[in-house]
């Protein structure tokens, strides 16, 4: 796996002060994407054990509220495989930090109904993620007034609650 960037002290990609990891590789290719350079799976740097340590260390200050995964596309299968060791470590060391993930895939139709049945990594990833913002960016639905989303078709989903109920449970309407 490769990654495009790590932003520490990020306040734009989830509530509070967070570390955000922008993974490389995305097959969605949304028109108007803000991070088109990260579509290439080979863009950026190799994601290594040192990268994981860097991210873990960045989460240590008490003012940090969580980790955000975005991209590129965190739910591309090769990225899931790369992200699992990080997610395991974050949950082990910082069980109370929130983990958010932005994905162009639909939570219910693509991730739960398809990926969970195809790849074991998906089910495990969902155990660690608190909130997923799902749906492709749609330029004609762009809305700068939305909180932590780019277009009005995207949903902010509580993962654990959704999995337990069998229905999508939204954090924000």
From TrEMBL:
Does the keyword section mention Phosphoprotein? no
Q: Which residues form the Radical SAM core domain?
A: 12-173
Using the record for this protein, list the coiled-coil segments as residue ranges, or answer none.
none
* Xref: InterPro entries: Aldolase_TIM, NrdG, Organic_radical-activating, Radical_activat_CS, rSAM, rSAM_sf
What SUPFAM superfamilies has UniProt attached to this entry? Radical SAM enzymes
Q: What domain of life?
A: Bacteria
Catalytic activity, EC: 1.97.1.-
Give a Pfam family name.
Answer: Fer4_12
Q: Which reaction does it catalyse?
A: glycyl-[protein] + reduced [flavodoxin] + S-adenosyl-L-methionine = glycin-2-yl radical-[protein] + semiquinone [flavodoxin] + 5'-deoxyadenosine + L-methionine + H(+)
The molecular function terms of the Gene Ontology recorded here are: 4 iron, 4 sulfur cluster binding; [formate-C-acetyltransferase]-activating enzyme activity; metal ion binding; ribonucleoside-diphosphate reductase activity, thioredoxin disulfide as acceptor
Keywords attached to this Swiss-Prot or TrEMBL record, sorted alphabetically, are: 4Fe-4S, Iron, Iron-sulfur, Metal-binding, Oxidoreductase, S-adenosyl-L-methionine
Name what cofactor the protein needs: [4Fe-4S] cluster
The task this protein performs is described as: Activation of anaerobic ribonucleoside-triphosphate reductase under anaerobic conditions by generation of an organic free radical, using S-adenosylmethionine and reduced flavodoxin as cosubstrates to produce 5'-deoxy-adenosine.
Q: Which NCBIfam families match?
A: NrdG
Q: Which family does it belong to?
A: Belongs to the organic radical-activating enzymes family.
Q: What is this protein called?
A: Anaerobic ribonucleoside-triphosphate reductase-activating protein
Q: What is the source species?
A: Lachnospira eligens
Q: What is the lineage of its organism?
A: Bacteria, Bacillati, Bacillota, Clostridia, Lachnospirales
Supply the gene name: nrdG
